[in-house]
Amino acid sequence: MTGSNAEERNKVPRFGGVPVHKRLQDAAGGLERAVMIRLIERLPVYGTLPAEHLGGDIAKQVTRGIRTFAGILRTGEMPGQAEAAAIRESSARRADEGVPLEAVVGAYHLGAEECAAQVFSAAEPGDLADVLMVQRQLLEYLRLVSCEVAAGYVQERQTALSDEQVALQSLLSRLLEGGSPQVAADRAGIQLPARYLVLSIAMGPHPDELVPGVNHAVAARRKLRRLRNEIQRQTSGVALSVLSGGGGLVLMPCTTSPDDFGRANRARLSDLVEQLGRMCGAELLAAATIAAPEGVAEAARLAGEVRAVAEASGRGPGLYLLDDVLLEYQLSRPSPARAGLAALLDPLDDRPELLDTLRAFLARGLDRRRAAARLQVHPNTVDYRLRKATELTGLDASRGADTLTLRAALAAHDAVGQATPEANRPVTPTPPTGGPAPT
């Protein structure tokens, strides 16, 4: 400690010959009332608190703050651990009550302004050194208070958010298990909607995830955060989701009737998927279904299957309903004919580029140029690959009679190949362990 600091600590500042802490103590009663009035005038959130609360805990904290600062002026010492803990506890209570952090910090600063106005008005020209001393002590006190307020507030919010996330995770798990989710909804404090829009999403990379030297994990997390934020912005009510960098499952409360789903509101659903992709900066392929809460488990399974079929059949980004993939979906279901259809493409098992070209060519209406653009190759390359596929399988994708057979064979081939992996299953969440939490 420097000599000047030690002298300042041992010196009691005076204005007009009267110790500043004595002036503050003498004015405490009127000062408390003035601070309470300013809180309500300048920070409207305090005016919404119950009168009993304002006159109770809030008033006590104002009184405590004035007394604490008077003690600093008297001793030159900053508050110890006990006072710091009291500030943190008070801030945690404000967090629990929903008072914004900026309002809690602002309350202390308004109190400091009132204290300063009360005592500085008594300063005389010869009190400059003491004025500077009081200012330094006031700023140091505000620095300490701001840190403790932030620490208490953030700790309480983290605890509350953890509890909320666990409750939301429990509700999401219950919805995906089937049966009545009412108990889990009550525990989470959520009123169940009449229906959920169920989206099974496959998400492409953000451009930043492809740039060498960029932290791809950070880019993926930013993409996910933007997606979650846009989902919540587009939702009236509480959306539930479990998402990773490659996609996942989203449940959004909706009011659409089952009879209208896919007809009257298809354009709106397509716009929604497009907007979600635009905001997160990645291509989205999403399959949608709709269900009452008790039917979410089956709807999620169906959405996952529709998404997998749309992906496997070479569809591009966008919204897909069951009606869009009826043929491929039906042909991918287990049947005596499925294995035979899949076997038609066995000669291409070692030539994945030929399979990809067939998918792209069929998915784009037999248009070689559009298929080439999708595959990012020259149209002549598409022609060569199609000829090679015909040589190996005996099936010509440009011949009408073979086109339907190839579509069926691709659907069966992909279904047989994905019978064991997880690609056909809806994403099921696991308890949060510090990773992505449900929104």
Taken in chain order, the helices and strands follow as HEEHHHHHHHHEHEEHEHEHHHHHH
CATH fold annotation of the domain at 3-160: Globin-like
**C-alpha end-to-end distance:** 50 Å
Q: What's the overall average pLDDT, rounded?
A: 85
Provide the β-strand percentage band: 5-15%
SS elements, strand count: 7
User: What is the 3D form?
Assistant: elongated
Major β-sheet profile: 5 strands, mixed
CATH level-4 homologous superfamily of the domain at 3-160: Phycocyanins
- The helix/strand class is alpha+beta
Helix content: 55-70%
Widest sheet: strand order? 4-5-3-6-7
CATH architectural type of the domain at 3-160:
Orthogonal Bundle
Q: Uncertain spans, ≥5 residues at pLDDT below 50?
A: 420-439
Under CATH at level 1, the class of the domain at 3-160 stands as Mainly Alpha
Helix count from the secondary structure assignment: 18
Radius of gyration: 33 Å
Structural description of this entry:
By secondary structure, this protein is α+β, with helices and mostly antiparallel strands. Among the domains are: 3-160, Phycocyanins (Globin-like, Orthogonal Bundle); 193-316, Alpha-Beta Plaits (2-Layer Sandwich). The chain contains 18 helices and seven strands. The protein has helices at residues 3-10, 20-26, 28-42, 44-47, 51-75, 81-97, 101-120, 128-177, 182-188, 216-233, 266-280, 296-312, 326-331, 338-343, 352-363, 368-375, 379-393, 400-417; strands spanning 14-15, 18-19, 195-203, 240-244, 247-254, 284-291, 318-320. The strands form two sheets. The chain has a five-stranded mixed beta sheet. Strands 1-2 form a two-stranded antiparallel ribbon. The model is unreliable at 420-439 (pLDDT under 50). Residues 34-165 form the RsbT co-antagonist protein RsbRD N-terminal domain.
